Amino acid sequence: MSFYSGAPFFGTLILLLLFALILGCMERSLRWYNLIVSGVMVVCVLGGNLTALAYFAGYFLIEWMLVRGYEYIRKKYGRKAAFYRSFVLLSILPLALCKLCDLPWLKEMNLFQFTGISYLTFRVVQIIIELYDGTIEEVKILDFSAFLIFFPTFSCGPIDRSRRFLEDYHNVPGRREYLERFGIGLQKLVLGATYKFVFADFFYQIMNQFMNRTAGNMVCYAYSYGFYMFFDFAGYSLMAVGTGYMLGICVPDNFKKPFISRDMKEFWARWHISLSEWFRDFVFSRFMMLSMHKKWFKSRLNGAAAGFLINMLVMGVWHGLTVHYILYGLYHGILLAVTEIYQKKSKFYKKYKKKTWYALASWGITLNLVMFGFLIFSGHFITI
Q1: Coiled-coil annotation: which residues (predicted)?
Q2: N or C: which end of the chain has fewer CB within 10 A?
Q3: Distance between CA 220 and CA 51 in Å, rounded?
């Protein structure tokens, strides 16, 4: 996550935000400014690697043609599931090829290897799904470009929604409203930088003291890695959100005190919120609707358990095709399925869930389960 690092970047960022502040105080639209700045910043980030820049340009053209093609077919033929699924799969294909190149025997292919492809794919797939649902009917090239390449969220999110983004993008706030956004954004940017460059670095140094694979070191590594991951990613997200606010876009927050969670469902409602909500809305919920329509399961509870397993397994594969990412997704899918069944079926849970001692015990168990999950995710636990 080096998108927000280095003196040259921060110097450039300060200048860009000062110009945005001037335009905002003058109550001028930031649309063209955001689009041009985002384009320049993306070229700067990818420009050191001409191959990556070429792949990004090709990816952009492919995805734009797919969106326009599906928009045309949707208007002409209506809500046909076969067309919709085909276009979703085609929009995911570049990302799939990119992930396949992570496998040792396919590294030489090096297809679509550029920063941000995973998060860009979320945005494109969401647009196609919403065209299918009818929640949006038309996609304009400038709106598509602005949404896709908005530079604060380009490489690692948070994952915004097109309709929410475009509402801010086309809105011209008054001076007072913009200054309030700018102030909030500045606070988030400073807090995020503190998280990332102070606390994340602190836990990274601790983590490196426990590299030996003894039982005690594994426990210490799991916790230090978990806190490092939080402060690094939450810090990056806060900086992205803060920069977005200062550019007039209220990017959604990505973390909400995840380590106070008392069960795994609550954890995923607090951790990487934009990702978990995307999967909830576009994978889990759609699987549930399809399974109920097809009557695949005897009960809704069984369907939900299967949905959690599939949802998190897909999330694990999205992170990468290596064993530890797949096991991480499967691990969290099992935990969420077990949590759902336990909370729906257990008389013990229903009797004591509001008790203080039960809340404390649930928090302790959840925290340990989460940290073990981070140990799996790190690849330090499983080395194959």
Answers
A1: none
A2: C
A3: 40
Catalytic residue (choose from 170, 319, 324, 380): 319
Across the chain, which has 384 residues, the per-10-residue mean pLDDT values are 64 92 96 94 82 93 97 95 96 93 72 90 96 94 96 92 95 96 97 96 96 91 97 96 97 97 97 96 94 91 96 94 94 98 96 96 98 95 72
Nearest to 218 by CA among 368, 36, 357: 368
Q: How many CB atoms neighbour CB 284 within 10 A?
A: 19
Q: Tokens 């690092």 identify what position?
A: 5
CA separation (Å) from 310 to 204, 317, 319, 330?
32, 10, 14, 8
User: What's CA 169's distance to the chain center, in Å?
Assistant: 20
* CA dihedral sign of residues 241, 245, 249, 253: positive
Q: How far is CA 58 from the centre of its chain?
A: 23
Ranges of each domain in the chain: 31-170, 175-250, 259-378
- Catalytic site residue 170? no
Rounded Cα distance between 338 and 183, Å, is 43
